[in-house]
Description:
Immunoglobulin-like, alpha+beta, 2 domains, elongated, 221 residues, twelve-stranded antiparallel β-sheet, FlgD/Vpr_Ig-like
Amino acid sequence: MAIDATSAVGTSKTSATAKKNDNSPEAIQERFMSLLVAQLKNQDPMAPMDNAQVTSQMAQLNTVTGINKLNDSMSAMVASFASNQTAQAVTMLGRAVLTEGNDIAMKDGVGTGSLEMKQSADSVQVNILDSNAKVIRTMDMGPQSKGIHQFDWDGKDANGNTVPSGNYKFEVQATAAGQKADVTTLSLAVVQGVRNAGSEGSKLLTNLGTELSFSDIKQIF
């Protein structure tokens, strides 16, 4: 007997769709009702199911279908959030951001860094470090108040020589009333790219060679 290819394909698609939707709320409800009807038909006439049992099973059905619908809603929300975050990340290209770190990029004789004072300090000094963590320049910022402060480095070492352009490190030493003051170093970076990190969301790639999440950013310029 000849088999109609179109009919076969249609049947295959229908079966695949049915299988795919086996865990949908509608499919679960249909299976539950079929089982409930079968249970009622075959119950012991001398010990019929009481209303409390039926109500309990209906409540369980509502819980299961409700969870499935909630999962579908959450999945849609996550997908929407990821899409919005990617779109937002693209708008960050070329923007300067401030984030925790001690990297400082020196280019064309100019380097900019920042620090966040958790308290006022009587004395604040910034040490510029080379790739070997050696101090090549110390800058005195004097007393500083609580908050975020920016400093500029002219790209010169302690002997007045201009160092090669590139990425350097810095450290901050601050004191208040003779005691070490609480300070956080901040890096000024430029967003140069965006990477999709899957479940971690979008990552911003910077000129310092670092990857940032939106939650890492303290300020945007």
